[in-house]
Amino acid sequence: MLEASAGDANLLTDVPTRQWKLTIRRFRSRKSGMIGLGIVIALILMAFLAPVLAPYAPNEVLVAKEDVGPREKPCIHLFGCDESKPQHVMGTDGNVRDEFSRIIYGARVSLTLGFFTVTIAFIVGSTLGAVAGYAGGWFDNIIMRIMDVILGFPSLLLAIAIVAVLGPGLQNALIAIAVVSIPAYARVMRAQVLSLKESDYVAASIALGASPRQLLARRIVPNALTPLVVLATLGVATAILEAAGLSFLGLGAQPPLAEWGSMLASERNNVFTSPHLVFFPGIAIMLTVLGFNLMGDGLRDALDPALNK
Amino acid sequence: MLSFITRRTLLAIPVLFGIMVVVFLLIRAIPGDPCSAILGEQATQAACDRFDEANGLNDPIWVQLGIYMKNVVTFNLGESIRFSIPVSQLLIDRLPLTIELAMSALIIAIVVGVPLGIVAARRHNTAVDAGTMAFANIGVSMPVFWLGLMLAYLFAVVLKDTPIALPPGGRLTAGVISVPYYDAWGWNLTEDTVWASLNEFIANFVIFNSFITARWDVWWDAIRHMILPAITLATIPMAIIARITRSSLLEAMNKDYIRTARAKGAKEWTVVSRHGLRNSLLPVVTIIGLQMGLLLGGAVLTETVFRLAGVGTALFDAITGRDYAVVQGFTVIIAAGYVIVNLFVDLSYGYLDPRIRVK
Fold it and tell me: What is the ipTM of this complex?
């Protein structure tokens, strides 16, 4: 049984310890996945340690406390900036707040948003997909047609419409992005359930008298999770990008919340005079999304090498 | 083949119907009413009553839905509450720009992405492969609007006095006018006819229009203004297409028939193109079809950054301004466009993979 090849892993109800070790070893062998993991861990640490790492509070207006004005260029003492001027590694924004601190605190917003969006979409989508795949018939048809309708819209436009209904704000942006992401999880779970439904151990369980609920919960779904885990990791990346897009259009995070997309949006008209205020939030978004993308790719390769990328 | 096409088309109709109903309900769920959005918060009740009556907003909801359905089927998309012009006129004005932008982006994405993927696959596990994939990964991770702003800064400010400076926004330089071809050629078009509208629509494809009227100054100006937005919009699809081409080609090249082709003595180029590429194109074509959705979403952001008056910005303004007719009309057109594109993708499967035709 332990000689089962990697492709059979999801047909076994009890994944042997050696299987997990193999997966981990495969993940560690790919540099890009490890880089992604490193970035994600650094990000999580940055979010947790924000009060320690950030020299100022994210919404602390400095105009009365220091001799700085709005949209100051970065001043780093190590790189030659005059010692008499207060150090602002990434300069100050339009409201005379330290940009570097806001970038660090922005990690909290992005990670929270990514995590919650994906969790909601994962739970709702997988449940719908699993039940649709198992039940089949008209129920399956209706669910999948609803998913098709959601997928029929360009996702950003649908998210914009949903936020317009609910009102601008980070929470509503979260809901909008989650709704738009649900069909992907539903489809993948349904495809998994459809194929796993036919396996021998399911037939055996039915013969032994398992109810559909027991069957789904204990036998089918745990073995269907592999592609969904990959989808979820990549989904965090997509969610962060879409949230930044919504914030850029003024529909997501509202000022004064330090969120990278809205920080970018508020300085957009000053890009020609203060490009650093657009550059740094964008780099932060890019690195975060890159980290999750690389990690997701690495996970996909590690969990099922037969896919051959 | 015909039944294949018919089947695919019929399957799309309920989806289209569902989309129309969802849009209808969604836009009406937005809090606030069009009256205060258009006439202002200070509008009196009497003014709003007149406004609602004039725009048919006092009818029961199912009556409004029925009227809407009937209108869509007869191509009457209503009137924009905000601009007081027919939605179809707004489409004629705005859609060509978005199509030009999306097409330019798609062409760039394919022309750069596919060869990149091929090169990466052919040099599998070398520095070229790793570098290409790193570039693709970064491309996919960049926020579209950030890339647009950074490119605008680079080409309009940093490179301002160089030959490769590019304008940071707008469709044409102020003062440059694109004369429609029917005016340039002295056609006499009767106003308010379908024929006139059609010609106006075509003439709004500025790059095409200036090309056929040989106005090279306008043509070049239009292209210069389109370069940055197109590259911005193309980056994510390009990266995705490169990745898919690479993985798909790798998978195809591992198959037995490749070994046979080589054993037969076929030239390497023939092996790669005729046997490898042709069989690996299916996922690539699928992805290209799926990019339409990404392009439309990205178009909203790109048009906002580069101040282009396209469908994206119009839709965004309409959604936030509760301009019901515009949202409904545009969405139906976009969804229909989606369905048509996917239909072509499905049909191309039949061409690329003869086994599918028989099914």
Answer: 0.82
